[in-house]
Amino acid sequence: MVPSDADLWARSRAGDSDAFGLLFERHARLIYNYCFRRVGDSATAQDMLSMVFLEAWRRRDKALPPDKTLPWLYGIATNVTRHQRRSERRFAAALRRLPSSDAEPDFAGAADERLDYERQAQKALDLLKALPQREQDVFVLCAGMELSYEDAALALDLPVGTVRSRLSRARARLRELNPGSGHKQDESTNAQEANPR
Amino acid sequence: MTEISFPPLHDLSPGELERRKQHLLSEITRDPETTRLSLPTVTFSRRRWVLATGTPTASKTRMGVLAGAVICAAFAASLIGVFVLGQSNSRSMQPGINAGLGSVGAYGERATLPPPPRSIAITDLSLAVGVPVALPMTSLVQPTDAHSATAERICPVVSVTGIDGTCFVLVRFPAQSLTVEYDRPTGQPGPAGFAADVQTMKKEATRHPGSGRADLLDLNGVPAMFMTGDYTFGAKGTASIHFIVGETAVTISGHRDEATLQALAQSILARMPAPSQVATADASSVLGAPVVLPETSLVQPSDAAPTSSAACPSQPTTATPCQVTVTFPSLTIHYVPLTIRYLRPASADPSTSYASVVKQVKGSKIISLAGVPALFVPGPPGAYPSWIGFVSNGTDITVQGNYDESTLQAVAQSISDRSGPQ
Q: A78 and B52 in contact by Cβ < 8 A?
């Protein structure tokens, strides 16, 4: 029988590192992809994946609602991406201890495929910059990772209504920036929104 | 097309996944006690002070516990200390004024837990929300049926300027299986956004059959949303109706049908005053009592904005009072102006309210303004403003801003002194 997230988290909280390793195996792909969509660089996203789970382990005192482990991890990932440099400083020593990679490529495919993904991600990020940070968070979680409003709300510690409205606003803003088929960006708008008030 | 095209999900190579896993396991077993005791120092959104991975708000939402409690401090403003240097407000940079800054920067960027939730008296609802609010009044439920109320996060939100935090106040009517929630500021695009929200929810409902229903309603010209299932703000199986008055969102949830919830919403709308702008020179006549402005080395009456916000029902009561809010834009620190709220009629027993706050909000205390009892509540860590509340000649006055206790006290003392004999 496959243990549930709740079981694995309960065991992790009790200090069971093997259970935590299983949680890592189970959710690493989604968390990595979420980080990748936030930063557009696979190597950075891989380090962020490590940081997210290191941070989750440090916070294993946290009691989670059943089946909400993944949204909670998304919440940590959001903080890690939002405060990338600080997170890197905090986990610098741990990351330095990461064994060097062997010769195999990052992806099962090839470097070309990785570069193609990174180009797509960078293109998406260019458009995302038109949104305030708080709307970016909601948009990538809901539209990019297809989280429910409720799970996004848990990840970001927001009321569900705020998630809904921020997503709505993000979409409206993107519509304004992209009345036709192309995503037109307004640099002045970006600068203003990137530093709200 | 509004959606951004994200790259498809892809896998880490098995080798990389295993390498990361082994590294993780190596790290977490390296010194478990050390890592366990070492608290994270994540700084959360500059405008929020609740752990992003902390209390599962969404879960609480579904359980109908959206609000907690606290009259604790202030509106949100924020932005980290470095932004002070970028302020165009020259007065805020004068020597001596910076010295009056409150919690700004004092806490660094270290994450802090929100103050613990706290219950509030039903009679203090308007004080807690930051704007006069009304409770439902129909054949089903009367205001006196309200059993308990809690406030959470940054309450009161007196002025929405510079705000991005939210004050949640939840009132429970257990006998009627109803809750009424007031969120201020709404943090939402307003009625214009309802159509888009409903459209989004309907789209999601198509993807996830059985998740719920969302519809637009018109409450005699006021747009509203009706929601069931996953889209409600209440416990599972409930329905919710959601509308906005000024900058305050109101949500009624319960095991009730649409018509019943509509009637409840109408009863609130009919009695909850929408804020409007009035000339500050006319503020006293709007309030029905003198609006006494402060005069100190920091602030002069002439610093008041020419217009103020007023929210007054036709017949003010303690439950739904008349409120005038005066801002001082030139005294803006961290995007939050010094703001003074005048509210009438005042609470009949402010001392009890103060004592309740002091008991539950860390750092708050009762002070004396030359014999007039007042409540000081420090801004929560993270550049949130502090406030002082007191009653002067039947008017409940709140002075709020990003200043330290002594500076705010001097402002409050000035108002008290200029108000004449109590």
A: yes
